[in-house]
Amino acid sequence: MRSDTQKKLFIDGFREMSKGTFTQIPGHILTFDPATQLAQLQIGIVGITEDGTFNHAPIIECPVHFAGGNDWSIDHKIEPNDEGMILFSQRCVDAWLQTGGIAKNPILRFHDKQDAFFLPGFRSKPNAITDFQNNGVRIRNDDASVYTWLKDDGTIESTNGTGTSTIKPDGEINLSNGSGYIKLLAGGNVDINGFIITTSGAASSPVSVSAPTVAAASSLTINSVEMKQHKHSAGTYTVGVNPVTGNSGEPV
After folding, report:
1. What share of the chain is helix, strand, coil (3-state, %, to 5)?
2. CA-closest candidate to residue 171, choices 161, 159, 180, 184
3. What are phi and psi of 168, to 5 degrees?
4. pLDDT for the residue numbered 195
5. What residues pair up with 221 in beta bridges, in sequence order?
6. Is residue 79 a contact partner of residue 88, using CB atoms and an 8 Å limit?
7. What residues have CB less than 8 Å from 106, skipping those under 6 apart?
8. pLDDT of residue 149
9. What totals of helices (H) and strands (E) does the chain contain, helices first?
10. What DSSP string describes 57-79?
11. How distant is the alpha carbon of residue 219 from its chain centre?
């Protein structure tokens, strides 16, 4: 039966040995190469030795995770200080990084911090996503001024901060840019800044069109001539059975 001293020695020895066994740990990006998608990483928690604490040296040439396969992928911006989880391979990945497939194992290295991968997206509290919407899927920039949003109810909404497009669950499509809008209504009618065009070809508000009649609620201009107060030029007109010479009156 082991004594308490032996137990302590065993536990201390195991603890010291485990310090050199890397599994996963939070960290952040120092530099990133878009061409190779490899990054230099900084472990985000200080190391501990019998002599005190220390900052881990940077880890170089670490693959960064981007979702997808050979045919499709999702790429997004990576910048210094982006947080995430650093994962460590149980074997040396140097050869695999160069060749892919089933690679040789040139170095008997186990759970070493040089064999790291980076999974972005894990965040500390100070870097939590602002204006987080727990509703469907949204791809967005930091302040949510630019995004594409697939909502739970089937709505698809996109904006670049100036123009916005929305597809509603009933099929209605809205396009707007702050100065005007176009709506493709669910029934097939079109609304352009309040001007409605129906599937039958009729149009209404502020101008209504219903063959063979065109009607304007307040104003109608033809070839730059305003019809509301339009007068015909001097000439001879017949009012009833009597000829009249001069300009006509305004339309009534």
Report:
1. 10, 40, 55
2. 184
3. -90, 165
4. 85
5. 226
6. no
7. 92, 94, 95
8. 98
9. 2, 22
10. PPEEEEEB--SB-SS-B------
11. 43
Q: Is the peptide bond before 34 cis (omega within 30 degrees of 0)?
A: no
| DSSP conformation letters of 106-151 | -S---S-TTSEEEEET---GGGPPTT---SSEEEE-TTSSSEEEE-
Q: How far apart are CA 104 and CA 173, in angstroms?
A: 55
The one-letter amino acid code at 92 reads C
Ordered mean pLDDT values, 10 residues apiece, the chain (252 residues): 73 69 95 98 90 91 96 96 97 94 89 96 96 97 96 98 96 94 90 85 61 60 66 59 62 58
C-alpha–C-alpha distance, residues 103 and 210, integer Å: 74
Query: Would the pTM of this model clear 0.90, i.e. be above it?
Result: no
Tokens, residue 42: 């900084």
Q: How many residues does the chain have?
A: 252
- Give the Cα separation of 34 and 6 in Å (integer): 52
pLDDT for residue 224 = 66
Token digits for 37?
């998608």
Q: For residue 7, what pLDDT is reported?
A: 76
pLDDT of residue 194: 86
Q: How far apart are CA 100 and CA 109, in angstroms?
A: 18
pLDDT for 39 equals 98
Other beta carbons within 10 Å of 54: 10
